[in-house]
Amino acid sequence: EIALGEIAESFTAESGVAVELVFAGSASLASSIVEGAEADVFASANPTVMQRVVAADLAAAAPQPFVRNQVALVVPNDDPAGLATNLDALDSATVARCAPEVPCGRLAIEAIDLLGLTIDPVTEESNVSAVLAKVELGEVDAGFVYQSDLHRSTVREIPIKEFEAISNEYLVVVLRDAEPGLSSQAFVDYLSSSPAQQILQSLGFEQP
After folding, report:
1. Phi, psi of 155 (to 5 degrees)
2. Radius of gyration of the chain (CA)
């Protein structure tokens, strides 16, 4: 939300076109669009959900990636399970991750498989913010979140180089019923521009 808010402000300053942002889960937004909600542009971290909008013939063109987010393993600042010095202890620690049906959950599963550990999460959340909150409050020993979450939290990351290969691309598309004119496409194009990418990278995102 922070990143898109800053990008929208920058876009408006350059173009004079105001941008109204609506934030919710990808599935919820897609359902609203399919049911007739007015929108000009749809962005999603979930390619499966994006495909629902495309399949409903509501996309004016093919969705395009504009940013990438990498998985990260985080612990409370005091690292109660000692994972910073003994990652193998993760298989006996209390761990939170997103549910498998959402993008952050799928990335977490990939990360766990890569580590070769047997982990039975104590909780599976519907969004990454809920996972982050449990780690911040010390309710779990560790959690799998996005790299970008580290810029808005006091949690401690356990750096794992292999996680650089585990990421999720965010897609964006102009909708078929967008207001006439070029503003919607201009905003989509702006997301890949240098000013927008600099904002995204400053907040922990990566180029697609």
Report:
1. -70, 165
2. 18
